Amino acid sequence: MASNHPYLSAPSREQALHALYEAAELEHCLMCTYLYAAFSLKSSVDEGLTPAQLDAVSRWRRAILQVATEEMGHLVAVWNITVALGGAPRIGRFNFPLDPGILPAGVVVKLAPFNVATLQHFIYLERPAGSAEPDGEGFSADRSFVRGADGPRLTPMGVDYDTVGQFYEKLAEGLRRMVDTYGESGALCGTPELQLTDADANLPGCKRVICLKTALAAFDAIVTQGEGAQENVEDSHYRKFAAIRAEYQALLAEDPNFVPAFPAATNPVMRRPPRPEGRVWIEDARAIATVDLANAAYGLMLRLLGYAYAVPSPDPDKALAVDLAVGLMRAIAPLAERAARLPAGPSNPQCHAGLSFIALRDASALPPGPGARRYFIERLQQLADAAVRLNEPGDARTAGAATWLARLAQSAAQGFDPDRPAGLVQAPAPAIAATPPPPAPPASVEDGIERVEGEKLTLLFESKRCIHARFCVTGAPTVFLANVQGPWIHPDTVDVERLAEIAHACPSGAIQYRRRDGRPDETTPPVNLAGTREAGPYAFRGELYLNGVPAGYRATLCRCGASKNKPFCDGSHHDAGFTASGEPPTGKATDMLAMRNGPLHLEPQPNGPLKVRGNLEIVSGTGRMVARVTSAFLCRCGGSKNKPFCDGTHATIGFVAD
Questions:
Q1: Is 429 part of a structural domain of the chain?
Q2: Is a pLDDT exceeding 50 seen at residue 194?
Q3: Which residues form the Iron-binding zinc finger CDGSH type domain (predicted)?
């Protein structure tokens, strides 16, 4: 054991929290450096790549982004352990480049574009213990130093380590000593409801830490997945980066002029640096505006994550804060890519700009309650307005960022109730009352919805949502005339109550109605349900909101990944040969929910799963209970081995969907 190990004296909770804060900073910094390199990669043949090179670079980008996502999972695991010890997680970090002493001398962390040296640096950071991998050129420490001190200290001291795996071994050893001294309940005395779980975020580290075993399992998962993993561990970060290196070298041998990335700045900064060494000052006006917006979004993401850790489950603010934080990273990505393609300015003509990931001076949690909610609503609207000003015609990246930020601002305005006092869980929103339609001709089509006026109700049919379940043409054949020319819907040919029942049976929500006889319209289902159809879509029933927009009470959403009308099913699962059981095994939390209805938010994640937020019972095709959840990520790429739940396969198969 190194002489400067902080746990040589009696175990101290302060020392443990101090070490966990460094672990959080390290994981956070690694995530940012990996994202920065990925955002610098080229993305089309128009940017100087051949089709074969583009195929390779696209795969590298997916692999690096997956590693960055896993680093985010590691960060959540460290935060959860911090909370389990009774602490508040360290959300912020130091700005790039890090000053000496923040980390050991051998662990250099800085923002740099993807190239041979940067990739070798990533391999070095993730290397297993005992590896002979050298660091990348230009990444050696400016000076050698020792951080610790001999003998025990009351004041927390940093420790030295050669690999990240060794660092986590020391953390695990210290945690064991705390449990030996104070007992498991005394050491792990934090509030479990403050932690993030897989119900809040679709990340591998989102597992609640409730005992020594779960804490040590989290440390072990971090090491095994990448940092300090043994060379024979498949799919580790080390192996991923080594595989990219092998392919990169082969492509360079074929074409020595192959340049896979833009020359983004090394350690970009947003103002004239008082210490310019190792930094690039961004001066170009377009680059400044782009990086400024991206940094502001990143800072808000940190605040939202801090807030999520201050709000106990099951407060809806917690899940919404996480959703908005993840959404902000989606908005940041196109801005960061754009920055890497813009000039840095006249002082540094040799390189481009880049996202500087400026950390707030203090990213600690805002006090839960009305003030924080108003802050998030206001700030997201400010970012959305700035994105509109930044948007340039024909620029897909600024347009994408503007779309995402507008959506997030809308979600915040709808989801955060600034008038609800702190600590009171929000009651379900009341059912949305439909207003009678204005006078209209017997049949009309508007926005793809066919409207047919009957004596006692108006029938609405939205063809793009129809999955041809045939409940209509078999249950009311005189109303719905299949395969005819001209008018095909005749609502007055059956009793109005029977027709309402037929509409309720339509699983896709393609058929809806508005009563004209004073009777109530369709009401909110008493239980929110999601059925898994055999080799087919999800059938949702509830008070549905799709990306924050009311979507009726019924919908069938694609789970095969092949629909051309995502997120809705269009029947493509038949032609795609999709196979998936409609009878998945009973699994996640089957205890009865405290509330079984209420708003059900459906939010397709770009290139990823379907995020579901709200009270929900997932059932098989025959109605058998599969799971009861308040938040879940459901597979929509068709590849998960844990259907209906996402297992991350979308990232490895290159699933693409809005």
A1: no
A2: yes
A3: 535-579, 617-656
- Domain of 582, CATH number, reads 3.40.5.90
For residue 96, what are its two tokens?
A: 């790039």
Sign for the pseudo-dihedral over CA of 571, 577, 583, 585? negative
SS3 587: coil
CA neighbor of 626 nearest in space, from 587, 592, 577, 582: 587
464 and 542, same domain (yes or no)? no
Asked if residue 607 and residue 510 are part of one domain, the reply reads: no
Q: Which range of residues forms the domain containing residue 649?
A: 529-653
- What does 365-404 look like in DSSP terms, one character per residue? PPPTTHHHHHHHHHHHHHHHHHHHHH--TT-HHHHHHHHH
Regarding whether 369 and 326 lie in a shared domain, the answer is: yes
Residue 438 has pLDDT above 50, yes or no: no
DSSP letters, 151-205, are S--SS------SSHHHHHHHHHHHHHHHHHHH-HHHHS-S-GGGS--TTT---TT
Helix (H) or strand (E) holding 453: strand 449-453
Report yes or no: 145 and 99 within 8 Å, Cβ to Cβ: no
Q: Which residue type occupies 90?
A: R
522: phi > 0 → left, psi -120 to 50 → alpha, else beta; which? beta
CATH of the domain at 122: 1.20.1260.10
Structure token pair of residue 537: 């879509």
Helix (H) or strand (E) holding 611: strand 610-619
Same domain for 89 and 5: yes
At 48-103, the pLDDT tens digits run 999 999 999 999 999 999 899 889 989 999 999 999 999 999 999 999 888 888 88
Q: What confidence tens digit (pLDDT) does each residue in 216-249 have?
A: 988 888 888 764 445 456 678 999 999 999 999 9
Q: Which tens digit of pLDDT belongs to each residue from 144-164?
A: 888 877 777 788 888 888 888
Q: Are residues 250 and 289 in the same domain?
A: no
Backbone angles phi, psi at 254, to 5 degrees: -75, -40
The count of domains in the chain is: 4
541 and 508 in a single domain? The answer is: no
Domain CATH number, residue 337: 1.20.1260
599 and 472 within one domain: no
Same-domain status, 297 and 151: no
Indicate the angle between helix axes 396-415 and 285-308, nearest 10 degrees.
30
Nearest to 573 by CA among 467, 473, 482, 650: 467
Q: Does any domain span residue 347?
A: yes
Query: Which residue, 481, 515, 549, sits at the end of a domain?
Result: 515
- Per-residue pLDDT, 2: 40
Q: For every residue of 101-141, which 3-state class applies, written as one string?
A: CCCCCCCCCCCCCCCHHHHHHHHHHCCCCCCCCCCCCCCCC
In degrees and rounded to multiples of 5, residue 603 shows phi and psi of -135, 95
